[in-house]
Design a protein that fits this description.
Elements (H helix, E strand, L loop, with lengths): L5 H9 L6 H13 L8 H15 L3 E5 L5 H7 L7 E6 L5 H10 L6 E5 L2 H4 L7 E6 L6 H9 L2 E10 L14 H15 L3 E6 L5 E6 L1
Parallel strand pairs: 1-2, 1-4, 2-3, 4-5
Antiparallel strand pairs: 5-7, 6-7
Helix pairs in contact: 3-4
Length: 211
């Protein structure tokens, strides 16, 4: 994920609003106690997600891939007064960490956690979303995109994380996960239902606006 000089990364973080204490605590807990802590959005990307949410003021947000709940809390920060984040993950072992963090943030009424297979849960959601954040298994990104696009309001947004995949998108012999990311990026680029921009923030974020 290190696409820029570490000193420049530190400078960017030093000139970004600090993460709330509940998030810094969750960040430390994740780094110390959870496998693959690099999956956490972290300070810079977390503030980016919060900014996007504040700009959109969404009523309904869908997140595919909860992990320890950091990004869900960031997305909930900009919700409309009656807003809700629905976040899906299949790792039941992290439920206690997620619910504890959400309670510490005072967002129990603003974030709904669903445990299970996103491919089964998404079709059961009879909602229209203003914002979707895809951050789950990479080989199924294209599938998730197709599953959510009709559930997004016209003018709504889809964000997809890890679309540069630690630079592996440039490798001549991509592995299975990288192939999934490459297929997704190409699919979005060719889709006339949307407009998109790929930002080299952290591990790459694709911002997609449904026309």
């Amino acid at each position: 994920m290190e696409f820029i000089d570490p000193q420049l990364q530190a400078y960017a973080e030093a000139h970004t609003s600090p993460e709330p204490k509940v998030l810094s605590d969750l960040n430390r807990h994740t780094q110390a106690n959870v496998l693959m802590p690099r999956m956490l959005s972290g300070h810079l990307q977390g503030r980016f997600l919060s900014f996007i949410s504040h700009m959109i003021r969404p009523r309904r947000v869908l997140e595919v891939g909860t992990y320890t709940g950091y990004s869900a809390i960031c997305l909930a920060e900009g919700l409309a007064n009656d807003g809700l984040v629905i976040t899906i993950d299949n790792n039941e072992e992290l439920t206690r960490t997620v619910t504890t963090a959400i309670a510490s943030a005072g967002l129990e009424c603003s974030i709904k956690c669903m445990i299970g297979n996103a491919q089964e849960i998404i079709p059961s959601l009879h909602e229209k979303f203003d914002l979707v954040f895809i951050d789950a298994d990479k080989e199924n990104y294209s599938l998730y995109f197709e599953m959510v696009i009709d559930k997004v309001h016209s003018g709504g947004f889809i964000l997809a994380d890890n679309v540069l995949w630690s630079g592996k998108v440039l490798q001549p012999k991509p592995d299975k996960d990288t192939q999934g990311i490459l297929a997704f990026n190409a699919k979005v680029q060719a889709d006339d239902r949307v407009e998109n921009v790929l930002l080299p923030v952290r591990d790459g974020i694709m911002i997609i606006r449904k026309k």
